[in-house]
Amino acid sequence: MSDKQANLNGAYYGPSIPPTKDYHRPGRGGGPIGCCCSCIFGLVFKLIFTAVVFMGLAFLVFWLIVRPTRVKFHVTDATLTQFNFSTDSNLHYNLALNLTIRNPNKKIGVYYDRIEARALYEGQRFSTVTLTPFYQGHKTTNVLNPVFQGQQLIVGSNLLEEFNQQKSAGVYEIEMKLYLRIRFKLGRIKTGKFKPRIECDLKVPLNQNGNSVGTFQTEKCSIDYFN
Question: In this structure, what DSSP letter does residue 89 have?
Fold first, then answer.
């Protein structure tokens, strides 16, 4: 009896136990497709980064060599000999300006292909003149002489009130805007066309028979290359 018990304790005589199976759950992005996508994204990122760095270095080298500076616009003189409203709301005007354009660049020239000058009063345009195109060389100053003369119907709710106040002071607030079409020249290279807008806020004393309440003060104009 003891021998049987010993044999039973030393071995297992029951039904066979199936082998344990190992289950593998693939992770996200696993496999050759995920690996390939990661490689592509990494390559694209490196190419973009390299292009940005290269463009930045090229711009820095260009700036160090050329040192581009904005062209400067000033209205140095203004003569207003007529500026009054008739009973039918027509503005009669005679305004002559001296506009200086300074190109301070040593290596960049400017082609002024189109120059349109507009005169405005209280935000309303009353005259437009087109000036002669020209080329401006390095470190040169050119003087333009736009003249606005004629009459124009202008209406507005507060227009006459503002006009009478300025008439009492003898100084009128007139705005001149330049709409340009220009190209830059660097050596033999010419750029495409740009359309900057120049704005000049002027305070012009009325000059009648050689008499005025004051003298015109030079005004610096603002430049907007991306209007």
Answer: S
Amino acid at 203: K
Rounded CA gap, 32 and 133, in Å?
Answer: 64
Q: What is the pLDDT along the chain (227 residues), one digit of tens a residue?
A: 555 554 555 555 556 666 655 555 555 545 566 667 777 777 777 788 788 876 776 655 555 455 578 999 999 999 999 999 998 889 999 999 999 999 999 989 999 999 999 999 999 999 999 999 999 999 999 999 999 999 999 987 789 899 999 999 999 999 999 999 999 998 888 999 999 999 999 999 999 877 788 899 999 999 997 66
Find out whether 139 and 72 touch, Cβ atoms under 8 Å: no
Cα–Cα distance for residue pair 147/115, rounded to 1 Å: 13
Separation between Cα atoms, residue 176 and residue 133, nearest integer Å = 18
Which residues in 115-134 are b (16+ Cβ under 10 Å) and which e? bebbbbbbeeebbeeebeee
Q: Is 183 buried (19+), middle (13-18) or exposed (0-12) by CB count in 10 A?
A: middle
- H-helix or E-strand spanning residue 114: strand 108-121
Instruction: Say how far apart CA 26 and CA 28 lie, in whole Å.
Output: 7
Pairing of strands 197-205, 189-190: unpaired
The SS3 call for residue 216 is coil
Q: How far apart are CA 178 and CA 72, in angstroms?
A: 13
